[in-house]
Design a protein that fits this description.
- It is a single chain.
- By secondary structure, this protein is of the alpha/beta class.
- It contains 12 helices and 11 strands.
- The protein folds into 2 domains: 245 residues, Type I PLP-dependent aspartate aminotransferase-like (Major domain) (Aspartate Aminotransferase, domain 2); 132 residues, Aspartate Aminotransferase, domain 1.
- Strands 1-7-6-5-4-2-3 form a 7-stranded mixed β-sheet, with helices on both faces. A 4-stranded antiparallel β-sheet has the order 8-9-11-10, covered by helices on one side.
- Helix 7 links the parallel strand 5 and strand 6.
- The termini are far apart.
- The relative contact order is 0.13.
Amino acid sequence: MRDATLLVTGGRTHPDEPHLVNPAVHRGSTVLFPSFERWQQRGRKGTFAYGRQGTPTTFALQDAFSALEGADGCRVAASGKASITVTLKALTKAGDHILVTDNVYSPSRRYCDDVLARFGVETTYFPPMIGADIKTLMRPNTRLVFVESPGSQTFEVQDIPAIAAVARTHGAWTIMDNTWATPLFFKPYDHGVDVTMHAGTKYVVGHSDAMMGLITWKGDEVGGLVERGVNDLGAPASPDDCWLALRGLRTMGVRLRHHEQAALEIARWLAARPEVATVLHPALPTCPGHDVFKRDFQGSSGLFSFVLHHVDERALAALFDGLELFGMGASWGGYESLLIPAPPYRTAAAWDAKGPILRMHVGLEDTADLIADLEAGFARLRAAA
């Protein structure tokens, strides 16, 4: 089936008798078994054993998302960060070395530096645009390569097939944060990725009202380690949040197309503004890796950044403090538009922009109203400069 159909049908059953359209919310911890034989079979793959391993609501979401991404399996976690930390912990051990893109989501960086380091896992950050030259950083003990494309804050689009090919040659897994594009706009398993992590909190849930992490994989070995890692940490997503994610999944395709079109309209408007030095939107030629984006992606979402010409903090505050439609919030992917200062973090390569970088999520409002809000903000910025 095509993606639009999978979004509607995934995780649903179609019995012959009258039934509800949506899977129900199944809450619970204890599972009762009808016989000693069935009790002895608990915990086997595909069996229903205990609420922490999931309920029918959980399984419905996992089945739907796995089919959408073309994966061999999917497990949910309590948040997007949990999906990342569970994966990193499940796939590494003391003495391992991992390679992580320098523009990775900052909580991922903190986990590598603060937690994995304490357990004997060494992290090397690599320049996002390194491509096949990542081979120069591979070591005999390199266990995995962690990519995020486009990257957080600065939106470089990485050459995932080239990186994954090198990783595979060296016996390492490629894991990817695919939250920005979702399975609709980037198919990771067509490009050599082994595991993906998603903050389902963003576009899957879509309404800024639930936390959700999703992990998918290709291959029995890596999948077994991920499943064990999820079970060992004992931090599942609740059935209620799984139900909200399932509800959001049904409309994700329609919402993403609106986010895409609206964000592109505003990105192009920003590119013509005298206050803006550059726009970092993967679908625009000004974004590093734009050619790779055109080759590998089927679309773009509503999140991007832009760099202002140098202004002081007082002028920047004047822009933000009068905004009526753009909220200042650290998340994205919901129906509401957001704008925040987003200073990049770099250790492998310096960030040399002279002015402040702002990250924008374009929601579902009318773009003319959003542009008017920004126009008034720029007027305040100029007056305060």
